[in-house]
Amino acid sequence: MKQTIMTLLALLISIAASAQSADKLYEEGKALYDAKNYTQAFPKFKAAAEKGHRKAQYRLGRCYEKGHGTDGDEVKAFQWYTKSAAQDYAKAQYQLGQCYKNGEGTEKNVVKAAEYFTKAAKQDNADAQFALGKCYLKGRGVPADEAKAKTWFNRAVKNEKDGKKILEDLKKDAANGDEKAKAILALIKK
């Protein structure tokens, strides 16, 4: 009995150490990535991602998508976004929606794009809220519904984290003659 308890305790300590090291690898990788030192960030993200760290999986997907620290590879980006999104990471769900919307690393599928935008939007991701508004406005992957489009656009521009930037970009695009941006702004004001 004592041996079993010691074995279980050792296993728990090992699991905790592995999780901590994944967090540490991710944080080191993020600092390097933010400093635009992609070549050194990539292996840290990869090691943490392989240990199941959802943010590292997302960042590794970004590295593959952008060719940061590695060769660009849309298929690998899609695979890592999928792993992160399966752990309910909103940023990865949004990127996975973009992959499906644009057919990057996978076949184009507007229904799946709308599904992933919805998952991320419900977690208060402003980019996903805005993308979902576009889906409802255009009837892409969901039935066209102007009221739902307006709701999601409003949630996006009022989002505490990124709403101001989305609204500024929308106004800038409208000022530059973008008819879609003008239409969205008009819808929001209704």
Can you tell me about this structure?
Helices cover 76% and strands 0% of the residues. The chain starts with a helix and ends with a helix. The chain has a domain at 88-190: Serine Threonine Protein Phosphatase 5, Tetratricopeptide repeat (Alpha Horseshoe). The mean pLDDT is 92. Helix 9 (163-175) crosses helix 10. It has ten helices and no strands. The longest helix is centred in the N-terminal third of the chain and has 33 residues, at 2-34.
Number of helices: 10
**How many beta-strand segments?**
0
Assign the CATH class of the domain at 88-190: Mainly Alpha
Return the string of H and E elements.
HHHHHHHHHH
General form: elongated
Q: From the alpha carbons, calculate the radius of gyration and give it in angstroms.
A: 20 Å
Helix content: over 70%
Class derived from helix and strand content:
mainly alpha
Beta-sheet strand percentage?
A: under 5%
CATH superfamily of the domain at 88-190: Tetratricopeptide repeat domain
Quaternary form: single chain
Could you list the spans in which at least 5 consecutive residues all have pLDDT below 50? none
Give the biggest sheet: none
From the N-terminal CA to the C-terminal CA, the straight-line distance is 70 Å
CATH architecture of the domain at 88-190: Alpha Horseshoe
Overall residue-averaged pLDDT value: 92
> What is the fold-level CATH name, i.e. the topology of the domain at 88-190?
Serine Threonine Protein Phosphatase 5, Tetratricopeptide repeat
